[in-house]
């Protein structure tokens, strides 16, 4: 009789342990618990939107962050062309200060796409720990740029 009572208890302990193990695994969209991370929750214009040379574009994003390796940091929005030239006229680039933990922030920047010479625009969202000068914690979206209607296209000879 004692064996029968212990079996359900043992099964409950094993099921509880299995639940803890399965909850501790991270999916591809969850941050790894000991690494800083950023994720793009939403962005306007949406990824895949084709931008027009010469046009003003306002990029607005909600960014999720997970900061565990510093007590504070900042999330930035950086808008660059295909040659990594900064397109923002905002100095310094827009940023939001964050503290250790997990949360979301909103960022926005408005740029004029140059009328010539730009084939793509990248919008980058780095998370930089306070006091750091470099980071590998970044997410980005890339947009194709097309010439303005009526713009002369270069001739190939």
Overall strand count: 7
Q: Any idea what the CATH architecture is?
A: Sandwich
Q: What fraction, in percent, of the residue positions are helical? A: 10-25%
CATH fold call: Immunoglobulin-like
Q: Can you count the helices?
A: 1
Distance between the termini: 94 Å
Report the average pLDDT across residues. Answer: 82
- Share of β-strand residues: over 45%
Q: Characterize the main sheet.
A: 7 strands, mixed
Explain what the structure shows.
The chain is mostly beta strands and 157 residues long. It has one helix at residues 2-24, and strands spanning 37-44, 51-52, 56-76, 78-81, 95-112, 120-129, 138-146. 18% of the residues are buried. Strands 1, 2, 3, 4, 5, 6 and 7 form a 7-stranded mixed beta sheet that branches. A hairpin with an 8-residue loop joins strand 6 and strand 7 (138-146).
Could you give a quick summary of the protein structure above?
With 157 residues, the chain is mostly beta strands. It has 1 helix and 7 strands, in the order H-E-E-E-E-E-E-E. The N terminus is likely disordered.
Overview features:
mainly beta, Immunoglobulin-like, 7 strands, disordered N terminus
Please write out the topology.
Blueprint: H1 2-24, E1 37-44, E2 51-52, E3 56-76, E4 78-81, E5 95-112, E6 120-129, E7 138-146
Parallel strand pairs: 2-7
Antiparallel strand pairs: 1-3, 3-5, 3-6, 4-6, 6-7
């Amino acid at each position: 009789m004692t064996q029968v009572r212990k079996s359900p208890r043992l099964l409950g302990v094993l099921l509880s342990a299995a639940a803890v193990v399965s909850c501790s695994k991270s999916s591809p969209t969850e941050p790894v618990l000991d690494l800083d991370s950023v994720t793009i929750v939403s962005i306007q214009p949406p990824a895949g939107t084709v931008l027009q040379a010469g046009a003003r574009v306002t990029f607005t994003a909600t960014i999720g962050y997970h900061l565990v390796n510093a007590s504070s940091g900042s999330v930035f929005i950086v808008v660059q062309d295909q040659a990594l030239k900064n397109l923002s006229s905002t100095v310094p680039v827009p940023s939001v200060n964050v503290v250790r933990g997990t949360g979301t922030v909103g960022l926005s920047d408005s740029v004029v796409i140059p009328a010539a010479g730009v084939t793509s625009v990248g919008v980058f969202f780095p998370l930089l720990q306070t006091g750091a000068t470099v980071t590998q914690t970044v997410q980005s979206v890339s947009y194709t740029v097309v010439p303005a209607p009526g713009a002369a296209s270069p001739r190939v000879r």
